[in-house]
Amino acid sequence: MNLVSGNIVSAQRDILGLPVCDLGWADAFAFAEEVATMPFGQTVIAFINANNANLMMRDGEYRAVLERQVVFPDGHGVDIASMVFHGRKFPANLNGTDFVPALLTYITKPMRVALIGTRPSTLKRATENFRHHAPWHDFIPISDGFFDRAKSDEIMEQVREANIDILLVAMGSPAQEKWIDRHVGPGHARLVLSVGALFDFVAGDVRRAPLGIRKLRLEWLYRLVQEPKRLWRRYVIGNPLFLYHVMRYKLSGMVVKRTVDETAEAGTR
Q1: What are phi and psi of 167, to 5 degrees?
Q2: Distance CA 177, CA 174 (A)
Q3: Most Cβ neighbours (<10 Å): which of 66, 93, 136, 151?
Q4: 202 closest CA partner among 110, 138, 118
Q5: Average pLDDT for runs of 10 along the chain of length 269
Q6: 139 contacts 113 by C-beta, under 8 angstroms
Q7: Alpha helices of 60-205 — where are they, by DSSP H?
Q8: How far apart are the first and last CA of the chain?
Q9: Is there a contact between 214 and 208 (Cβ–Cβ < 8 Å)?
Q10: How far is it, in rounded angstroms, from Cα 130 to Cα 116?
Q11: NCBIfam families, from UniProt (predicted)?
């Protein structure tokens, strides 16, 4: 089966009522490269993990935004949900922290990549490290994440004038997804990704878990140990809450078995 056709992802799974892409690494890279190199159109990619899912369950606006975007699975939590709902894990953990740098390596055609978000010093270091990581691309820091939101259209006009191919937005969820939905449109970039804390990791402000822990999809536990005061609520309370939502949704019998014919062209404009 051809899982990717144009800018449509035809393989998705229902996770708490949200269509989530059912792609391995190779198909995810091929899809993202294809839409990034198209001469027109725009595709927005977001990532769903247990914390974001909890936010979605109480924020109808956030859910509606995600339904208009292409959503990739991130972390062990959505794998558990997929096992409960569909009897199998997702073929790949397409979290933004790993996916985006790998995608920039995968795309060999020189791209113009804009960065918006995080603190000014972090944005500067992240841009420099991206340039070392994939020097054939042109990385352009547009703005940190503390600009006056009333000036969002001015920020996006800078993006338009820079003739950007890929736009990375790091504001945290759900703010980044909502901001993209409101202010980013055709002509700003062919591929737009909401990347959360990616710039902090790339800049070296936040240390990644050892590779073995990441392979076990337990980086959340490593981060909790590193930053218990900031993250305890997200994981100690959030993880059981997510499992509650999963079991409640399962018992409701509302799980949708999505097929190619039922999949809408979410995330494209």
Answers
A1: -115, 125
A2: 6
A3: 66
A4: 118
A5: 48 95 96 94 96 97 97 94 96 94 98 97 98 98 96 96 97 97 94 96 86 74 77 84 96 68 45
A6: yes
A7: 60-67, 76-86, 96-106, 120-133, 152-161, 175-183, 198-203
A8: 24
A9: yes
A10: 14
A11: wecG_tagA_cpsF
